[in-house]
Design brief:
- The chain has 422 residues and is α+β, with helices and mostly antiparallel strands.
- It folds into four domains: 2-150, 2-Layer Sandwich (Alpha-Beta Plaits); 157-244, Glycinamide Ribonucleotide Synthetase, Chain A, domain 4 (Alpha-Beta Complex), CATH 3.90.600.20; 252-343, OB fold (Dihydrolipoamide Acetyltransferase, E2P), CATH 2.40.50.1010; 347-386, no CATH class.
- Helix content is 20%, strand content 31%.
- It has helices spanning 18-32, 68-82, 106-114, 119-128, 141-150, 177-187, 221-230, 309-313, and strands at 2-8, 34-44, 57-65, 93-98, 133-135, 157-163, 195-196, 201-202, 212-218, 238-244, 252-254, 268-275, 280-282, 286-293, 296-302, 321-329, 332-342, 347-350, 362-363, 370-371, 378-379, 383-386, 394-397, 418-419.
- The chain has an eight-stranded mixed β-sheet, with helices on both faces. The protein has a five-stranded mixed barrel with strand order 12-14-15-17-16.
- Strand 14 (286-293) and strand 15 (296-302) form a beta hairpin.
- Helix 1 (18-32) crosses helix 2, helix 3 (106-114) crosses helix 5 and helix 6 (177-187) runs antiparallel to helix 7 (221-230).
- The longest helix has 15 residues, at 18-32.
- 41% of the residues are buried.
- The structure holds zinc ion.
Length: 422
């Protein structure tokens, strides 16, 4: 029988990783019970959920086994041995969904990526379809487990995750930084978002105590294996390629296409609007501005970690037409990217220019107008000049070090002028 296994919420900030646990389960299945079909899937859910685990990612994979009871027993053993069940915020859940039932979970999965889904809804579906499952403690992981099985991937990318030897867990990772930049230089954009050139950071290596050595992002299996050959690190214990919804914008609700009456916190949107005031910095290097939209005035933010992206935002002026992408938190859109649709004409008042020598006149004294000392020309008032804008229209994005798993980088998008932060 072909069964989808969905699993979530087995890790905590102190260790483990659901992808690792799933990898251990798949190894056990292959050696004892049957076959794993194709690649496993790593599905990131709504990134703004307040009670999420670190990356809010769930895993699913399809197996062909003789007996579901045996499968459930193996899974239960691995979960009990490896999940961080003693952690107060870890509530694992596993579902075992018949292959032909997975389609029925599609809309639930879509909501789990975009919306706030309650555990009751997951339990309702499990009851409705008699879905065999394993629930530990509160079993909150059942939400992600069902979503990972049901998620429809119209777009996808791949991630090759290499895991450390267990005795290394929690220790500092050894790797040659330069080799990651060389790899990116060679393979980009077939591999992407593994390093951040401007901020000189390798972003595909976590610094948590989890089992992951690195997670390489790419568009094809071939490119990922090429990358594997080029990077130099401590030896890995095992590795697995996951099909993911990373870099797809699947969390974004497009308000131009979906009719909603208002924006809510803990959701992510694409919204169009017009800048209403000058952008302003607050302490800590965070930059804010407001836009007027069909939902009213909305505050947008480019926080300090978005680094050079803030310099773009600081150049916005009232009247600019923009399309913002990001998550709503505390009634503020946290920008992931922006499209400047149209730049407003901004005028500034300046001293007039001398018609003879072409230099700017100086003040002739209070209320006395302006004069050119050299040519003796005079003028009575300041002139309005068109401000030359430091930015142009098109897409701008946060750098890879500030990019979310789900955010689609501009290199993966078509269209208008793209200002890519690689
Ligand atoms: Zn002059």
């Amino acid at each position: 029988m072909r069964v989808w296994v969905g699993i979530d919420d087995t890790d905590s900030s102190r260790g483990m990783c659901t992808t690792y646990l799933a990898t251990l389960i798949m190894e056990r299945v292959e050696s004892e019970l049957g076959r794993v079909e194709g690649f496993p899937r790593l599905i990131r859910l709504n990134p703004t959920i307040p009670y999420k685990t670190r990356g809010n990612g769930a895993v699913s994979f399809l197996v062909d086994v003789e007996d579901r009871e045996d499968l459930m027993e193996v899974v239960n053993e691995v979960v009990l041995e490896h999940a961080m069940i003693e952690d107060e915020n870890t509530d694992p859940g596993v579902v075992f969904v018949d292959d032909d039932l997975a389609l029925k979970l599609k809309s639930f999965a879509d909501r789990a990526m975009k919306d706030v889904v309650m555990l009751d809804e997951a339990l309702f579906l499990i009851g409705k379809y008699f879905i065999p499952h394993l629930k530990y403690k509160k079993g909150r992981g059942l939400i992600g487990a069902l979503a990972a099985v049901g998620a429809e991937l119209n777009d996808h990318t791949l991630e090759l995750i290499a895991y450390r030897y267990p005795e290394k867990f929690g220790t500092e990772r050894e790797y040659d930084e330069e080799s990651f930049f060389d790899m990116d230089f060679e393979l980009y954009p077939l591999t992407f978002d593994n390093v951040d050139w401007c901020n000189e950071k390798v972003v595909c290596i976590p610094n948590t105590p989890c089992p992951v050595l690195y997670g390489l992002r790419g568009e094809s299996v071939e490119a990922l294996y090429d990358a594997l050959d080029m990077i130099r690190t401590e030896p890995y214990d095992r590795k697995m390629i996951f099909i993911t919804n990373h870099a797809t914008d699947m969390h974004i609700i497009d308000t131009d296409r979906i009719s909603i009456t208002g924006l809510e916190n803990y959701r992510s949107y694409k919204v169009t609007g017009r800048v209403t005031g000058e952008p302003y910095d607050i302490e800590g290097g965070h930059v804010f501005f407001e836009i007027d939209t069909r939902f009213g005035e909305i505050k947008c933010a480019a926080f300090e970690p978005t680094k050079q992206f803030r310099n773009i935002i600081r150049q916005l002026r009232p009247g600019d037409e923009v399309e913002v992408y990001g998550s709503m938190k505390k009634d503020t859109i946290n920008l992931e990217k922006i499209r400047i649709v149209k730049l407003a004409k901004v005028y500034v008042e300046r001293n007039p220019i001398c018609a003879i020598c072409g230099k700017r006149m100086e003040s002739a004294g209070k209320g006395q107008g302006f004069r050119c000392r050299k040519c003796k020309t005079r003028a009575s008032r300041k002139v309005k000049e068109l401000l030359s804008r430091e930015i142009e229209t098109g897409f701008y994005e946060v750098p890879p070090s500030a990019r979310r798993h789900l955010s689609r980088p501009l290199i993966r998008m078509d269209g208008d002028k793209r200002h890519i932060f690689r």
